[in-house]
Amino acid sequence: MRSFGVKPILDYSVEEDLSQEEAEKREVEASVSSAGTNLSEDSADSLPQYSVDKTFADRRYKVQSARTYFYLNEATCERNMETFLECLDAVKGATFGTGITAIKLTALGRPQLLLQVSEVIMQARRYMMDLAGSTGNILTHHKTIQDLERYLGNVSDKAEVKQFLEKVTSDKDGILHLFPWTGIINEDCQLSETFRVPDPVTGQMRRLISKIPPKEEEMFRNMIRRLNTIVKTAQDLDVRIMIDAEQTYFQPAISRITLEMMRKYNTEKAIVFNTYQCYLKDTYKEVCTDLEQAKRQNFYFGAKLVRGAYIEQERARAAALGYEDPTNPSFEATTEMYHKTLTECLRRIRILKDANIDPKKIAIMVASHNEDTVRFAIEKMQEIGIHPEDKVICFGQLLGMCDYITFPLGQAGYSAYKYIPYGPVNEVLPYLSRRAQENKGVLQKIKKEKRLLLSEITKRLAKGQLFYKPKGKYVPI
């Protein structure tokens, strides 16, 4: 691979071979707090999307292309952390520092905590919508602390409200942040006390998150400690780390935590990358929001764009639990979302170049097996004036799939990657066997690859060079 300019993303793909019953039992137990499942009575209504449902507790349901971790105990999470640290060492040693490690946040902590933090983020957005008096992207409202004081005008003289207003933060443009989100990745963070807002009518403080017992608060701090350890090690070794996307009921928490890790560690280059699934209706808005935060708070933004792995499960769950389907209605709509999001990223990179600001402030991986999307990305790069040597756009495909896309990209000087699942054979088989059942579109691509291989063999036989090997010493970008 290296000789053809292709680099690796090492993906430790060990999965426990659990029965459906065992997976459901573990997930339900790990997704419900010992303090109960509902928010306290003085808080807003809970959101059904962010609660566990036994029907969908086995997160492998209708999912072929993503590995799944089920929480057992804190010791298992510690072992997963140690494994990810070994992956980083492998990336540093085997890839001359050009490779990337992929990790999943559900491997490092209790899923209940991700559910609760996801819900509080959506509750906070709802509160901000009420403050703004409209819908849409909350960042475009540009609300300031003064706006919040006016919103709470009738109750602003109450002691608890005054305390809340003193803690509210804003960025360099004066834009309001309800909570000091940086605190979420501090190992002394108290979730139950952090996420409280004043009711604009009564002035009473209400929780946006259900009461979390001390033991579970400690579990959250452990999860953050593990992630901090992994990212700090990646920074020390000078390799990069991609945090995979997961189901929409975990994703707000995963994205928020990842963004805070970017703010903390992406100060000189993009070390941490977030993953955005373009089959979701809100992807473009989320990417724009995060790009805006990176710009305002002056950190390097890293993103991997994928179509996504959980669409069938997401649709089935939304229909069963009665909340709005978060996914795009068609393949074409997903492609449009992908291309629109990618174009916005490229446009912003061009703005950085024109302003003589480091264009690497935004780093994007186009992770797609779709030829049209890869072609679109290359054409847009040329149109906007972004070159392979700028090292801001890279491409990624799975090992063993679409080699006819990856290797020509590497040979042509583009930054190209292969996603390599690895681990002890017997422990990787549960994941690989599900990947083997992947959709028909992939099988059609295999047919195309077979046609191309047959064509190449025919050419070599005609030239009498059956064992000819192209001479390639392409330096990976």
From TrEMBL:
<comment type="pathway">
    <text>Amino-acid degradation; L-proline degradation into L-glutamate; L-glutamate from L-proline: step 1/2.</text>
</comment>
<feature type="region of interest" description="Disordered">
    <location>
        <begin position="18"/>
        <end position="45"/>
    </location>
</feature>
<dbReference type="GO" id="GO:0071949">
    <property type="term" value="F:FAD binding"/>
</dbReference>
<dbReference type="Pfam" id="PF01619">
    <property type="entry name" value="Pro_dh"/>
</dbReference>
<dbReference type="InterPro" id="IPR029041">
    <property type="entry name" value="FAD-linked_oxidoreductase-like"/>
</dbReference>
<dbReference type="InterPro" id="IPR002872">
    <property type="entry name" value="Proline_DH_dom"/>
</dbReference>
<comment type="function">
    <text>Converts proline to delta-1-pyrroline-5-carboxylate.</text>
</comment>
<feature type="domain" description="Proline dehydrogenase">
    <location>
        <begin position="142"/>
        <end position="446"/>
    </location>
</feature>
<comment type="similarity">
    <text>Belongs to the proline oxidase family.</text>
</comment>
<dbReference type="InterPro" id="IPR015659">
    <property type="entry name" value="Proline_oxidase"/>
</dbReference>
<protein>
    <recommendedName>
        <fullName>Proline dehydrogenase</fullName>
        <ecNumber>1.5.5.2</ecNumber>
    </recommendedName>
</protein>
<dbReference type="GO" id="GO:0004657">
    <property type="term" value="F:proline dehydrogenase activity"/>
</dbReference>
<dbReference type="GO" id="GO:0005739">
    <property type="term" value="C:mitochondrion"/>
</dbReference>
<dbReference type="GO" id="GO:0010133">
    <property type="term" value="P:L-proline catabolic process to L-glutamate"/>
</dbReference>
<keyword id="KW-0560">Oxidoreductase</keyword>
<feature type="compositionally biased region" description="Polar residues">
    <location>
        <begin position="31"/>
        <end position="45"/>
    </location>
</feature>
<keyword id="KW-0274">FAD</keyword>
<keyword id="KW-0285">Flavoprotein</keyword>
<keyword id="KW-0642">Proline metabolism</keyword>
